[in-house]
Amino acid sequence: MAGFSGGVVINAGTLRMGASNCIPDDARISLSTSVSTATFDLNGYNETIASLIAAYPAGVTNSSATPVTLTLSLLRNG
Question: Against a cut of 0.85, is the pTM above it?
């Protein structure tokens, strides 16, 4: 996601990673379930993000057999 900044909102479906660390570390990911289930799939890749907000039944998964790490950087404003 070259040149990408800001947050990511997944309202429905799946955001599946294709490489490690392609979302900026200060990104905020929000998984909404207003229409259907939203999923953030690490797919075998490590990722660092600032925060994650998920409403049940939305969630984070790893569809790969490769172990992964999701790191929350919890960056502060100011």
Answer: no
